[in-house]
Amino acid sequence: MTTQRIIDILEQGQVGQRITAKGWVKSRRDSKAVTFLVLGDGSSVKTLQVVVDEAVREAAQLQLVGTGASVAVEGELVASPGKGQTVELKADKVSIYGLADQETYPLQKKGHSMEFLRSIAHLRSRSNVFGAVFRIRSTLAQATHRFLSGQGFNYVHTPIITASDCEGAGAMFEVKANTKDHFFGRPAMLTVSGQLNAEALAYGLGRVYTFGPTFRAENSNTNRHLAEFWMIEPEAAFFDIHDDMDLAEAYLKALIEAVFAERRDDLELLNSFVDKDLIKTLETTKNATFVRLTYTEAVDILLAAQKGGRAFEFPVAWGSDLQSEHERYLTEEHFKLPVILTAYPKEIKSFYMFQNDDDKTVAAMDVLVPRIGEIIGGSQREHRLDRLEKRIVELGMKLEDYTWYLDLNRFGAVPHAGFGLGFERAVMFCTGMVNIRDVVPFPRAVGQAAF
Ligand code: 4AD
Ligand code: MG
């Protein structure tokens, strides 16, 4: 590779060295004798200052070059007398790749709203904030693979088109061919979760995880729901609910550590411009022992708060699903720490969860973090065939729709557990972004599929 990235020039470049830097102009400032160009190339939030003297400026027709234009600059690295950088590039040649019209280039001005930037999703990755968010997204994906493979998990690929509704919530997109009715010989949907297939693979490989897109046709226009989102789903044989919680806690901490180690600049930018508590919240989470309590204990805390005058939009009652406001109260206000809730009422959880001895609750676990609420949902799975079948029937589901899934536990059943981390929620947590549509490059949500 002959092209040097700006991050490498800034970190490894020596004064006196001749280099060629390529990038987009972030700003141009003219004085009588020289022009200053600030160049960025996406390799980090950092920029290279380029100094162009009069003769070079005229030869290069630099008067045409403004914010957004793309250039290559050749010259010598010199010590920078200015503040904010140690080296700068003294240009002896500037070549223009592409100009950007200053009247119509939308990222010309600073301080656009997130809503406006969403309407130009094809251009917003060129802004500092979105550059930082998408670099952190990449770091989180890479750190996921490193952490889980370090724990002995095999990366498996589960189908995107499926005939089974894993979560039983019914909010699925149907897949139809425009050439043939029932292309798959039966109704088919986009998957809401790769879990059932991952369970099958965990019985072969011991520890597996999926990392893929999942789809939910929930008509919920919130800043925490997408119609298309990415989920990481580890699944392990010989795991119980406690192993599952330990893995979830260690995984979240490993993600935060990777962002601190690799994306400090981006974190600092986001801490200044997006969420003043971002670094503090991540530090706290990384160093915390997550609070673990049962759903019933959590409901008692919420009921006490309600009695003490804390108003909730949705009333708290044992047996109903916790709303985001309840989850956030627990993690942000009551404990001020990440929280893992377990032993949820079986009525509000999926059919496949391990049934506790009380006959009322299942071995589910949800991880709640400040600003987000639920970031992870998981459980120990019901591996006792008779109980699993009984639950499927109780819920009015058809046993014949789950033949292959039941087979898993017909042969060599063992305790096993897993969870799903909503990848975009993890990106929100690690960037401070408040709307989930702003942590995925091209969001798909109810009423929104542009780009
Ligand atoms: O809690 P959920 O529904 O769990 C499952 O799908 C299990 N099958 C996972 C498993 O045990 N293998 O979803 C898991 C996570 C949630 O905690 C949330 O972070 C995220 O996925 N999530 C969404 N993220 C964005 N948009 C949506 N519509 C989401 N629905 C769930
Ligand atoms: Mg959930």
Description:
This protein is an alpha+beta fold. Helices cover 32% and strands 25% of the residues. The protein is built from 13 helices and 16 strands. The protein has helices at 6-12, 54-59, 114-119, 128-150, 195-205, 241-262, 264-273, 278-287, 295-307, 324-334, 385-394, 403-410, 423-431; strands spanning 18-30, 34-40, 48-53, 70-79, 87-98, 154-155, 161-162, 174-175, 188-190, 207-215, 228-237, 291-294, 339-345, 361-369, 373-380, 416-422. An eight-stranded mixed sheet has the order 6-10-11-16-15-14-13-12, sandwiched between helices. Strand 14 and strand 15 (373-380) form a beta hairpin. The relative contact order is 0.11. Bound molecules: 4-amino-1,4-dioxobutan-2-aminium adenosine-5'-monophosphate (4AD) and magnesium ion. 4-amino-1,4-dioxobutan-2-aminium adenosine-5'-monophosphate (4AD) binds at residues 166-167, 193, 195, 216, 218, 225-226, 229, 231, 233, 374-379, 418-420, 422, 424-425. The site of 4-amino-1,4-dioxobutan-2-aminium adenosine-5'-monophosphate has 23 residues, from strand 11, strand 15, strand 16 and helix 13.
